[in-house]
């Protein structure tokens, strides 16, 4: 359905979707599944960064296949010396399905590499976002043609990337909240005034406070899209942390969530925790 082509330039077969619509789509995907939201966020922002490069980069990526996928690797990063690339990039989302990789080197350049040239790809094992395709890439003395080395032009990409990452966290928190509320409503309907009803009422108050925090985080993310990069980054960090704390509040309102690893609330909580950690680190990388 074009989920990976939202920010891909129209001249290369993409949608060039308005950024606010894209951020909302990321949050909606994450509310259903945190991994899907993170994949959507990272694949599309990678395409946005690629679209800001020289046109011949876009031709390399999408000239033969408009559905080609791009993944971007940032920290720790690598170095390019005498036309050879060496480095390591952690938690690269979508590396398992990408056709091309944009790898950060020397803090101010990006190197475009065919995925087929990367042989050391190790899946990242983490508790949350299990289907986000996160992987660690390692390259040693890989020959790179000069025409595939680009200055890392921003063109607003850093703000959009940070907003998408924060939206993936807030969306997963919103999905967690909605599942929790549905569970509480079901239990209240079946409680018939039992002692459990008093505990559930406390839970509803916690859920109401969490909902306010998630709404506030969402508003911060939307507002950040029109702010200067440093201000936007601060707002995006605050939004991600606020969403994480809201998720903590919901999980803590019922012992049943924490005791049942198969509970969708517990699954989304793990997605929120991992997504927040990745988002904060990504925002630090973008600052540098």
Automatic annotation (TrEMBL):
SUPFAM superfamilies: Acyl-CoA dehydrogenase NM domain-like (SSF56645). Keywords: Oxidoreductase. The keyword Oxidoreductase applies. GO terms for molecular function: flavin adenine dinucleotide binding; oxidoreductase activity, acting on the CH-CH group of donors. Residues 165-277 form the Acyl-CoA dehydrogenase C-terminal domain. It comes from the Bacteria. Coiled coil: none annotated. The keyword Membrane does not apply. This is Acyl-CoA dehydrogenase C-terminal domain-containing protein. It comes from Mycolicibacter heraklionensis.
